């Protein structure tokens, strides 16, 4: 048995070596993108302010490109937001004045035809599953990046090992393992408050309520509550780093006639944490400790998707059934189905979502949304006009994203547009209600 | 060791001699064209020049073809299209890979008639550039065009009708008129600068005049490598992402 395993490993290395020794080399590839964008939140003459100011330079290259294997490396240098000096000394620190982040993008090596039809990719990569636009309930490897409020579908690459196999032209499969969990990235505080802790006043009011329930009159309850020392904190717990906590999954995919389909299974985690408030009241020492415990629930996702052309209309349906081992998670299905159509220079896209929308208020109850967009290009495709939006079907709150994109020269795009949310208290977009923004930006690809 | 394609060409040529004096049918002409112009596989680097009233745009492409129905096209330049790939394995199966989304998408029914990379070619026209899924209909006309004797036949591809001019000697396509429902010419495709390589005729220049739009697209082949041993399972998502 041991000998057979050893032989198998040797055979694998031999085949890998054969791939590496191929001589034909493709041309090297170097590419990049620079972009910068500013957003203004419209809120009356005195309150209108800049909420977003990001400039980024992304550089990528394919340093190895041979017939049987290739490598890819990408780096993004991003200047986020505004200068934040807190004291005079900070003015001497350029990092406080120009907050820069250096991000490692995709960085992998891919071996082609390790066995006939079998490709192996190792390193930071973006593995995307699913056929739907924007939201994909079956897509659980690459980490969502919600930091840009205008891009609802951005993902960060993650370190993983990925095997893709295509034994038949119409049928294939893939397996992936991601050893280290990476949570989703949230929007920056300048744009969207991520403070989830209750304030001291709120906690003291809670104490007053408790004392009144215990039989004290309101004046005494307030007096006693005022004597309490109140503390609050968050405690975020990431999944452990042992192998059994790795995210892993497989997918079978293919096409029959005009239908593309896939079936998938994944064992992984929610990208956003589930919060559990814990309140410790210590009457002896007159202390109230509030802890918000945040953890990422483990889940299994059974997924299926299909896409087809039906009577000239592009159609897709994608569903993922999440099964939680933790009682804090609620088992259930998320699904998205959509249509798109092109006519006389127009393109329209309409989707129905039952599940979670990235920027919406999260709750145990899933939302029902309609997502849509219509666009038209003019002047030999140099000007794109687009209006997109999302509507919370139950409560009627919504978001709109009009856009004008001009491409005066190849590689250069100038964008102008808006981002508008409307949502009353208790609706899915209630916390985004103040967002009425205009933006402008430039992108240059080379 | 006889090459199967050569035997097939020889047999068709003999058939042509035996049937001298008899007129060929439209399907025969189309089949002879496929034999004359189809390699087992080919890898091509091409420059696409799009000319409209206001500007001239250039794109560099890499095309990998097998037979008449499998085609993988990747844009190398310009920067805003770099890495965009188009795969077809037949008239009804077309996919596009957009690097910004990191995902491969099936091209929906109506979108097959959309512009391919901003050019005058549609996805459908790129997919049928080798006449693999075309069906010949009607009678054959023999006439002279630009000093060359040609067979003129009608072809149909997924409901789209065209007229095809075929060189009577070499059985290569010289011109295709894409027609609307009323028989008016919408687009005119001409094939020129033929090069014979390994018994296969390759048009090094394909020019499409978009009559309704008043623009044109020229596809010029720069490097052509035939019969390099490309396998069927080359036409995959991974190779779309890789860029052919």
Q: What would the keywords be for this entry?
A:
heterodimer, A: 446 residues, mainly beta, 3 domains, 18-stranded antiparallel β-barrel, 3-stranded mixed β-sheet, 23 strands, B: 244 residues, alpha+beta, outer membrane lipoprotein receptor (LolB), chain A, 13-stranded antiparallel β-sheet, 13 strands, globular
Descriptive notes:
The complex is a heterodimer of chains A (446) and B (244). In chain A, helix 4 (200-213) crosses helix 5. Chain A has helices at 2-20, 44-47, 94-97, 200-213, 218-227, and strands spanning 29-41, 49-62, 69-80, 100-115, 118-125, 143-144, 155-156, 158-168, 171-178, 229-237, 247-256, 259-269, 274-282, 287-295, 298-310, 313-324, 332-343, 346-355, 367-378, 383-392, 398-406, 412-422, 436-445. Helices cover 11% and strands 52% of the residues of chain A. The model of chain A is unreliable at 16-25 (pLDDT under 50). Chain A folds into three domains: 19-125, no CATH class; 137-324, no CATH class; 344-446. Chain A has five helices and 23 strands. In chain B, 16% of the residues lie in helices and 47% in strands. Chain B contains four helices and 13 strands.
Number of strands of chain A: 23
**What's the story with the biggest beta sheet of chain B?**
13 strands, antiparallel
What is the count of structural domains of chain A? Answer: 3
Give the domain tally of chain B: 1
User: Assembly type of the shown chains?
Assistant: heterodimer
Write down the overall geometry of chain B: globular
Number of helices of chain B: 4
**Cα distance spanning the termini of chain A:** 54 Å
Percent in strands of chain B: over 45%
Strand-pairing-aware structural class of chain B: alpha+beta
Q: In the CATH scheme, what's the topology name of chain B? A: outer membrane lipoprotein receptor (LolB), chain A
Radius of gyration of chain B: 18 Å
């Amino acid at each position: 048995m041991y000998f057979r395993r050893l032989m198998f490993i040797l055979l694998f290395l031999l085949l890998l070596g054969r791939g590496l020794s191929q001589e034909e080399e493709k041309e090297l590839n170097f590419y990049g993108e620079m972009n910068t964008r500013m957003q203004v939140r419209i809120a009356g003459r005195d309150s209108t302010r800049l909420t977003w100011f990001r400039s980024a330079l992304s550089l990528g290259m394919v340093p190895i490109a041979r017939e049987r294997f290739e490598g890819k490396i990408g780096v993004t240098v991003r200047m986020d937001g505004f200068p934040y000096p807190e004291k005079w000394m900070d003015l001497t620190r350029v990092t406080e004045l120009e907050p820069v982040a250096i991000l490692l993008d995709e960085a992998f090596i891919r071996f082609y035809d390790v066995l006939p039809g079998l490709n192996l990719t190792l390193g930071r990569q973006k593995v995307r599953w699913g056929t739907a636009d924007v939201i994909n309930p079956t897509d659980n490897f690459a980490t969502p990046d919600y930091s840009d409020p205008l891009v609802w579908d951005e993902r960060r690459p993650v370190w993983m090992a990925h095997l893709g196999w295509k034994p038949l032209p119409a049928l294939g499969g893939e397996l992936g393992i991601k050893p280290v969990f990476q949570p989703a990235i949230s929007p920056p505080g300048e744009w969207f408050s991520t403070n989830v802790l209750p304030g001291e006043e709120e906690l003291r009011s809670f104490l007053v309520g408790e004392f009144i329930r215990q039989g004290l009159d309101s004046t005494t309850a307030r007096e006693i509550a005022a004597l309490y020392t109140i503390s609050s904190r968050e405690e975020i717990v990431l999944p452990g780093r042992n192998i059994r906590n790795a995210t892993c999954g497989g997918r079978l995919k293919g096409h029959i006639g005009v239908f593309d389909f896939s079936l998938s299974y994944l064992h992984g985690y929610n990208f956003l944490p589930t919060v559990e408030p814990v309140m410790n009241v210590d009457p002896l020492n007159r202390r109230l400790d509030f802890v918000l415990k945040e953890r990422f629930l483990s889940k299994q996702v059974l997924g299926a998707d299909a896409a087809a052309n039906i009577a000239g209309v592009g159609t897709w349906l994608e569903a993922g059934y999440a099964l939680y081992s933790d009682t804090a998670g609620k088992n259930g299905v998320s699904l998205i189905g959509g249509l798109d159509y092109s006519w006389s220079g127009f393109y329209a896209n309409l989707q129905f979502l039952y599940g979670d929308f990235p920027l919406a208020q999260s709750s145990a109850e899933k939302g029902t949304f309609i997502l849509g967009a219509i666009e038209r290009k003019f002047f030999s495709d140099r000007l794109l006009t687009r209006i997109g939006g999302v509507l919370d079907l139950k409560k009627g709150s919504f978001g709109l994203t009009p856009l004008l994109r001009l491409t005066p020269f190849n590689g250069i795009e100038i964008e102008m547009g808006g981002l508008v949310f409307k949502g009353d208290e208790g609706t899915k977009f209630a916390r985004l209600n103040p967002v009425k923004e205009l933006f402008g930006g430039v992108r240059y690809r080379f | 060791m006889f090459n199967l394609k050569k035997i097939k060409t020889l047999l068709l040529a003999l058939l042509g001699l035996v049937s001298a004096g008899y007129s060929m049918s439209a399907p025969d002409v189309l089949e002879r064209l496929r034999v004359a112009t189809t390699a087992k596989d080919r890898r091509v680097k091409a420059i696409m020049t799009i000319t409209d009233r206001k500007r001239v745009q250039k794109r560099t492409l890499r095309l990998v073809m097998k037979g008449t129905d499998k085609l993988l096209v990747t844009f190398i330049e310009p920067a805003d299209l770099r890495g965009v790939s188009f795969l077809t394995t037949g008239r009804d199966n077309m996919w596009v890979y957009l690097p910004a989304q990191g995902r491969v998408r099936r091209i929906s029914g109506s979108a097959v008639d959309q512009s391919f990379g901003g050019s005058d070619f549609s996805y459908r026209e790129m997919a049928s550039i080798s006449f693999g899924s075309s069906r010949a209909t009607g009678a054959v006309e023999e006439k002279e065009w630009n000093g060359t004797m040609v067979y003129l036949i009608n072809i149909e591809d997924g409901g789209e009708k065209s007229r095809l001019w075929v060189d009577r000697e070499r059985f290569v396509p010289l011109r295709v008129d894409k027609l609307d429902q009323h028989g008016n010419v919408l687009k005119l495709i001409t094939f020129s600068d033929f090069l014979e390589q390994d018994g296969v005729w390759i048009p090094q220049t394909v020019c499409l005049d978009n009559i309704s739009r008043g623009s044109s697209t020229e596809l010029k082949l720069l490097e052509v490598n035939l019969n390099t041993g490309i396998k069927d399972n080359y036409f995959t998502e991974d190779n779309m992402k890789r860029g052919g």
